[in-house]
Design goal:
Elements lengths: L3 E3 L2 E3 L13 E3 L7 H11 L9 H17 L6 H18 L16 H22 L27 H17 L12 H15 L1 E3 L10 H16 L3 E4 L8 E4 L1 H7 L1
Antiparallel strand pairs: 1-2, 1-3, 4-6, 5-6
Family: Belongs to the ScpA family.
Subcellular location: Cytoplasm
Pfam families: SMC_ScpA
């Protein structure tokens, strides 16, 4: 018979020469796990009403269990001794004569707090038993693992008539952007445009920047003309001037080039 649990392990025989610290010992009186559990067992065993506990009878039975444990030289947990003191106090208060004035409210039943604790404990115990009765892995059943490779057929998307129409319209729209055209190469020489600019400046000494370009001849003519002007500036043959801020840019021959031309 298990009389206690020491660090979670059941103790059936108590060595007489072994000291066990009280805080390391969990008392089990006939499989009772605490004083409330013992009281509830005594009440339910005799079919007593929890709301009207006969304190004299219950207290005597409870103290009888305590005396049995003390006879075995067993150190009781403090909670069992505390409950014994509570029962003795309640029994004493019930035995005292009630001398209460008429104008005051009657004194509360000394058993009320104990009854509430017993009912709450009973609810928790029943809930714990219900949870323990549920199937538990490792105790009531074991898990079986069987790896399976399930081949699932690939489902292709269903193509509707509207999808085909949309795809066809997309192809037609791309065809419109892919049109053939012939590119004609226009030969424009940078050196030729440099000579043309110098001839123009020799004839009128200076000219406006905008007068060097003829947009109606095409983009290639404008770009090559601009490159030619940059080359002349780089070689020091012409100078770029601007008298006022945001004013017209003037292109003039360099002084040494003017003398050489003269």
């Amino acid at each position: 018979m298990t009389i206690a649990y020491l660090f979670g392990q059941p103790v059936t025989d108590l060595p007489k020469d072994l000291f066990i610290p009280p805080q390391a010992l969990q008392v089990v009186l006939s499989s009772f796990e605490g004083p409330l559990d013992l009281l509830l067992y005594l009440i339910r065993k005799q079919n007593l009403d929890v709301l009207d506990i006969p304190m004299l009878q219950i207290t005597e039975q409870y103290l009888g269990y305590i005396n049995q444990m003390e006879a075995r030289q067993f150190d009781l947990a403090a909670e069992y001794l505390l409950m014994a003191a509570v029962l003795i106090e309640i029994k004493s208060r019930l035995l005292l004569p009630q001398t209460q004035p008429e104008n005051e409210e009657p004194e509360a039943d000394p058993r009320a707090e104990l009854v509430q604790r017993l009912l709450a404990y009973e609810q928790m115990k029943l809930a714990a038993q219900g949870l323990d009765a549920l199937p538990r892995a490792g105790r009531d059943f074991g898990w079986a693992y069987l790896p399976l490779e399930i081949a699932q057929a690939q489902r292709l998307p269903e193509v509707q008539l509207a999808d085909l129409t949309q795809a066809w319209l997309g192809i037609l729209s791309r065809v419109k952007h892919n049109q053939n055209h012939q590119i004609e190469h226009e030969a424009v020489s940078v050196r030729e445009r440099m000579s043309a600019i110098l001839r123009k400046l020799n004839a009128q000494a200076s000219c406006a920047f905008s007068q060097l370009f003829q947009p109606e001849l095409g983009a290639a003519h404008v770009v090559v003309n601009f490159i030619a002007l940059l080359e002349l500036v780089k070689e020091g043959l012409v100078r770029v001037q601007q008298e006022n801020q945001f004013g017209e840019i003037a292109i003039v021959l360099a002084q040494n080039n003017r003398q050489a031309v003269a």
